[in-house]
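Supplementary notes for students who missed Thursday's class. We covered one full example, reproduced here. Read the sequence, then the structure, then the short commentary at the end.
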Amino acid sequence: MKKGIVIRAFSGNPDFLGSAGFLSTLADFERCFAAAAELGFEGVQPYVEPEGYFSLQADDETLRAVSAAARQAGIVLTSLEIKPFSYLLTDDDAAVRAAGVTLVRRAMQVAAAMEISAVLVIPGYVGLPWDPSAKPVRYDLAYERTRQGLAELVPDAERLGVSILVENIWNKFLLSPLEFRTLIDEIGSPHVGMLLDTGNLIAFGYPEQWIRILGRRIKEVHLKDYRESVGGVCGFVGLLEGDVNWPEVIAALEEIGYDGFLTAEVFPYRHHGDAVLQHTSQSMDRILARPKLV
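Structure (token representation):
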């Protein structure tokens, strides 16, 4: 299994990127990739901003430059993350759903241009626990619309050689590993799989069970930890600080023959934000039973 980290662990981090605190130049990306490699990470998951230097509107020259910078640092770009809920495949409005398919298609084109193997897709929601203003969507309709939207994107995925990875999040949707498995199997394409997030499952399940049930449908794993005694969105904590049973998670991944990326989804600390990078690297070495660095 390979060790990765989200690029958002670097962006928004003035201790690492200066007062701007975000990735706005090629030099910023080069600094991030070099730091990731120095800390022992083998991959970085890039995040497409709505606008700016690296966005869905970026030209091919920019995309190729960022991709080349990663390769030069010895870093693999694991999958491409689109801003969550900037697109919706579950919405009651057909025009919104169509726009969502178009946006995901563009993200797949960006990934292909950068030689990134997959795009992370959050199809939408039934409800959002942190946003009471979000209008609920009927569950069965959300499921059918998700299936239709993903099926519509399959020909593009196959043509571009880019996989679609659906992630489990707190959206009151796809709450069971059986349901997730059924969705992927109904679509029936090797280019549609799952990005499993360990921390997102703790409030209502066990990551190791999901891993054994989903098996090889899992194409990437987000490592997050969660402390149930805290609860809510404040329950997310650093790796090894929560209730994820890491030995069982690794054992389950080994059982299914998983050899892809474990991508830490962590964010800068409020103070000395760059310290999260070293702490996360050390925690992942323990989780993966790699030799301790002196």
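Commentary. The first helix runs from residue 14 to 17. The radius of gyration is 18 Å. If anything here is unclear, bring it to office hours.
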